[in-house]
Amino acid sequence: MSSLSSTPTPPPARGDDPRGPERSDIGIGMIGYGFMGAAHSQGWRNARSFFDPPLRPRFAALGGRNREAAGHLADRFDWPVVETDWRALIARDDIGIVDICTPGDTHAEIAIAALEAGKHVLCEKPLANSVAEAEAMVAAAETARARGIRSMLGFTYRRVPALTLARRLVAEGRIGELRHVRARYLQDWLGDPTAPYTWRMSRERAGSGALGDIGAHAVDITQYVAGEWITGVSGLTETFVRERPLADGSGTGQVTVDDAAVFTGRLAGGALASFEATRYATGRKNALRLELNGTRGSLAFDLEDLNVLHFHDATAATATQGFTRILVTEAEHPYLDAWWPPGHGLGYEHAFAHQSVDLLTAIAEGTDPEPSFADGLRVQRLLAAVEESAAANGVWTAVPLP
Q: What keywords does the record list, in alphabetical order (predicted)?
């Protein structure tokens, strides 16, 4: 049976003894200054402030074509230099890690150039806008790996402590043999048909719509927590509003991506799965929901209540069975020993610090960080299979396995 590794890698602990000032710094060069640029900046800053990574991240340069807009983010997070040409940023001698927070149409070119220049790379998801681009990125990553250069994909929700704990419980056999998975990522920010056109609505820039933007997270989290690959899908997609006003009032833009996607799937172990990704779920702001049902129990998670994991133990006495609400804030929970006392919850931004620490640790130890570019390629192939299926009115479509 084809599956992912069943044993999750334990996250790095802060420890009681600081490693001291002799630790080396590594320069961070980040390309992109929007929503993800701010989230990644906070992650790098908190990685150094709350953890003791074996490499200390140092802000070296921020890249962005619009110097004024990039400068606003640089001022907020103390990036010392703004580069308006990403090639100049990659060429800098004071940068060891290139962090890519740009739209998907630029990922392949930037990542491949950075790896060839001997820089470690963190790239936001999805890996690329096409399977072909993703394959080229994986090839570059494998070549760089032989020279000790590491690469990692930013599926950050893997670092939400409750989801990391869920993976651990599945790997320990606490829910038994997996039967069902339900994964949904629900947002409503496009529910208003007069909402302005953005780059996320262009296939050329974004690759796909809700499917690749948020559906990719649902797919990755399912495979990560379940520890199994999805082997086939049957899907449907829809674009509800096909033309939107431009933000500057100069006209309208054609929406060339999906607004919503639904698809079913089968995991390598035989379990059935259902997925939904939409930007039209009125009232749902950022509801990434995952439920797994097995022969010995179930797990349920909702990102809108991200410090909580619900666990049902079907082996318990019938009279006391039911879902247990686990508040994931104890020091023995993943990543939590670096933060606050029990009961003091974390937020959306904390997973970016965990991501940064994991990458810094892997680089220092000479190990391969996860998720890899190869993991991203597998998600890209699944997304392509969903689109292929939808184009054929939901015909069952196999997903190539590793």
A: Oxidoreductase
Helix (H) or strand (E) holding 249: none
In angstroms, the CA 308 to CA 311 distance is 10
User: C-alpha distances in angstroms, 237 versus 163, 203, 256, 259, 288?
Assistant: 27, 14, 12, 8, 18
Distance CA 232, CA 270 (A): 11
- Sheet of 297-302: strand order equals 323-327, 308-313, 297-302, 287-294, 178-186, 272-278, 260-267, 230-238, 397-398
Q: Select 161-305+307-346+379-391's CATH number: 3.60.15.10, 3.30.360.10, 3.40.50.300, 3.40.640.10.
A: 3.30.360.10
162, 139 contact by CB (below 8 A): no
DSSP string, 121-183: EEEESSS-SSHHHHHHHHHHHHHHHTTT--EEEE-GGGGSHHHHHHHHHHHTTTT-SEEEEEE
What's the N-to-C CA distance of the chain in angstroms?
Answer: 12
pLDDT band at 22 (very low <50, low <70, confident <90, very high): low
- Please say whether the beta carbons of 244 and 199 come within 8 A: no
Q: What is the pLDDT of residues 115-152, one digit of tens each?
A: 999 999 999 999 999 999 999 999 999 999 999 999 99
Contact 94, 27 (CB under 8 A): yes
- pTM for the whole structure: 0.92
Q: Which CATH number fits domain 24-157: 3.30.300.20, 3.40.50.720, 3.40.190.10, 3.30.110.70?
A: 3.40.50.720
Q: For strand 97-100 and strand 24-31, is the pairing parallel, antiparallel, or unpaired?
A: parallel
pLDDT at position 6: 38
Q: Under a CB-based contact definition with an 8 Å cutoff, are residues 310 and 199 in contact?
A: no
Per domain, the residue ranges of the chain are 24-157, 161-305+307-346+379-391
Contact 114, 88 (CB under 8 A): no
Question: Are 181 and 272 in contact, with CB atoms under 8 Å apart?
Answer: yes
Q: What is the mean pLDDT of the chain?
A: 94
Say how far apart CA 222 and CA 269 lie, in whole Å.
Answer: 13
pLDDT score at 401 = 80
CB neighbourhood size of 391 (10 A): 12
